[in-house]
Write a structure and sequence with these properties.
Strand order of the largest sheet: 4-10-9-8-7-5-6
CATH topology of the largest domain: Aspartate Aminotransferase, domain 2
Strand content: 15-25%
CATH architecture of the largest domain: 3-Layer(aba) Sandwich
Bound molecules: pyridoxal-5'-phosphate
Number of domains: 2
Largest sheet: 7 strands, mixed
Radius of gyration: 22 Å
Distance between the termini: 50 Å
C-alpha cells in the first residue's frame, strides 16, 4: 500500500475520464450532483435542462420513484446471484417482459452489461450460429462507415468512426464496410427519413460478390445511426438491406442501443420501420441508465440452432459475471413498467411533430448547414471552423452548459435526445436556449 499518498479534497487527477478532453475538463470542471425529472443540478446549484437523456439512456427522465424503489428493495433482498448454472426470478421476468415488448420474431434474451458487450455478443452468436448449422465458413462481419457499435474490439472493427479505430492496431480481420448514408448535398434539412440513398444498400451485393456469400456471417447497422451524429436511413434503405441479406443467408443485426425503448416513438426501430432483423442489440434505456445492463434479442431460429447435443452440455460458451444481475433486472422491470404506465413511447410519438417544428426553426441561424430529426431525436450540423474541426460544436456545448442546457456534440454536430417525458414547454425552453447559443457562436 502506498500509504504516503494522501487524497486531498477536490483532487481530480486520479480519474482518467472516458471520451473526455481530460485536461480541459479538469481546468474548469462541470459537475452534476443531483437529478430529478428533466433537470440536473450542478455543484453550484444551477438546474440544467437535460437535452440528451444523460447519454441517450435516461428515457424516463431522472429519479423516477418506481425505479429507485425497485433498486433499493432488490439490493436489500438479493444483491447478487451467480449468473452461470444458477438463476433468480427477476432475470426471467425481465426477459419475458422484453419479449412481450419487442416485435414478434424476438423470443429470446441474452443479457450483457453495456451496449458494447451486446454488440460483441451478437457478433459472436452470429458466427457460432452458422457454425452450429454446419456453415462454419461464414465468419466475415460487415459494418458500415460512420457506424458506432461501442468500443470493444469487435465493435470498433465493424464500426466506422475513424478516431475510434485508428489508434488501436489492426482490429479484427475479415471485416468489410458498407458506405454510410449521409448525403447532405441531396438530403440537407430533410424532415424525417431522407428521399435519397436507398441504392447505397445495393453496395452489399458488391461486397457479397467480392468475398462470396458463403464467407459472410452478418451485417450490423444502427437502423438510425446516433453517435456519429444522427444519420437517418433513406427511404427504402433498410428494406433493401433486409432483402439482400435474406437472399444470401446473411444475418442482419440492428444495433438499437440508442433507438430501443421509445426514442423513435416505438419500442424498437425495427417496429418503427417495420423491418425485422435477426438480432437486436440494446442497453441504455433498458434500465433507464440507472444500473448498467444490455441485452441481445434473438429469434427462435437462432436460439434453437444452439439447443442440440447432450443436455448437460453448455450450448453457448459466452456470458458475463453480471449477465442478468438481480439489481439490474429489478431496475429493468421497473423501467419497462414506467414506460408503459406513463405512456412514454406514445408521448414521444405524439410530441415528434412539435419537436420537429421547433428543431427546424433553427434553420438560417449562423453556421447551421443541416438539420435532421425523427421521433424525439434531432441533429444540427454546423459548418466546421477551417483547420479546427469539432471546435465550434464543442464551444456550443460549453455555451449551452453556461445557459443551463445539456446538449451533446460529436464532430461538428449537435445531437439532441431528451427524456421522453419532455413537455412542449420544455421543448420551447430547450430550443430557446439553443438558439441563443447559436446566434452568438463565433
Ligand atoms: C448504437 C450503439 N451501439 C453501442 C453503443 C455502446 O454502448 P455502451 O457505451 O453502453 O457500451 C452505443 C453507445 O452510444 C451505441 O450508440
Amino acid at each position: 500500500m502506498a500509504s504516503d499518498r494522501k487524497s486531498v479534497p477536490n483532487d481530480l487527477s486520479a480519474f482518467w475520464m472516458p471520451f473526455t478532453a481530460n485536461r480541459q475538463f479538469k481546468k474548469a470542471p462541470r459537475m452534476f450532483v443531483a437529478a430529478d425529472g428533466m433537470y440536473y443540478t450542478t455543484a453550484d446549484g444551477r438546474k440544467v435542462l437535460d437535452g440528451t437523456a444523460g447519454l441517450w439512456c435516461c428515457n424516463a427522465g431522472h429519479n423516477r420513484p418506481r425505479i429507485t424503489e425497485a433498486v433499493q428493495k432488490q439490493v436489500a433482498e438479493l444483491d447478487y446471484a451467480p449468473a452461470f448454472q444458477m438463476g433468480h426470478p427477476k432475470a426471467f421476468e425481465l426477459a419475458n417482459a422484453l419479449r412481450d415488448m419487442a416485435p414478434e420474431p424476438f423470443e429470446h434474451v441474452f443479457y450483457t452489461n453495456s451496449g458494447s458487450e451486446s454488440v460483441e455478443t451478437a457478433l459472436k452468436i452470429a458466427i457460432a450460429y452458422h457454425r452450429a448449422r454446419g456453415e462454419g465458413s461464414r465468419t466475415r462481419l460487415i459494418g458500415r462507415e460512420r457506424g458506432y457499435h461501442g468500443v470493444n474490439f469487435g465493435g470498433i472493427s465493424v464500426g466506422g468512426i475513424v478516431n475510434n479505430r485508428r489508434h488501436f492496431g489492426t482490429l479484427l480481420t475479415g471485416v468489410d464496410h458498407l458506405p454510410h448514408t449521409h448525403l447532405p448535398e441531396k438530403n440537407a434539412f430533410t424532415r424525417g427519413q431522407p428521399e435519397h440513398g436507398a441504392e447505397l444498400a445495393d453496395e452489399l451485393e458488391d461486397i457479397v460478390a467480392l468475398h462470396g456469400a458463403e464467407t459472410i456471417a452478418a451485417v450490423i447497422v444502427e437502423p438510425m445511426a446516433g453517435s456519429t451524429g444522427v444519420l437517418l436511413p433513406p427511404k427504402g434503405y433498410l428494406e433493401r438491406l433486409r432483402e439482400i441479406t435474406k437472399r444470401h443467408g446473411i444475418l442482419l443485426i440492428f444495433d438499437e442501443v440508442i433507438t430501443g425503448f421509445g426514442r423513435l416513438g416505438s419500442s424498437f426501430a425495427a417496429e418503427h420501420f417495420n423491418v425485422m432483423p435477426d438480432m437486436i442489440t440494446c442497453a441504455k434505456g433498458l434500465t433507464n441508465g440507472v444500473i448498467p445492463m444490455g441485452a441481445v434479442l434473438t429469434t427462435n431460429a437462432i436460439h434453437d440452432a444452439f439447443m442440440q447435443g447432450p443436455e448437460h452440455m453448455i450450448e453457448l460458451f459466452h456470458g458475463y459475471t453480471y449477465s442478468g444481475n438481480p439489481v439490474a433486472s429489478a431496475a429493468g422491470l421497473a423501467t419497462l413498467e414506467t414506460y408503459r404506465e406513463e405512456g412514454l413511447f406514445e408521448n414521444a410519438a405524439a410530441l415528434a411533430p412539435y419537436w420537429e417544428d421547433a428543431l427546424h426553426s433553427l434553420r438560417g441561424l449562423p453556421h447551421v448547414i443541416d438539420i435532421r430529426n425523427m421521433g424525439l431525436i434531432g441533429a444540427i450540423e454546423l459548418e466546421p471552423i477551417e483547420g479546427a474541426s469539432t471546435k465550434r460544436a464543442f464551444q456550443a456545448f460549453l455555451d449551452a452548459y453556461e445557459k443551463d442546457l445539456l446538449i451533446r456534440t460529436t464532430g461538428d454536430i449537435i445531437a439532441l435526445s431528451p427524456p421522453l417525458m419532455i413537455s412542449k414547454g420544455e421543448i420551447d425552453e430547450l430550443f430557446g436556449k439553443l438558439s441563443e447559443v447559436l446566434k452568438n457562436l463565433e
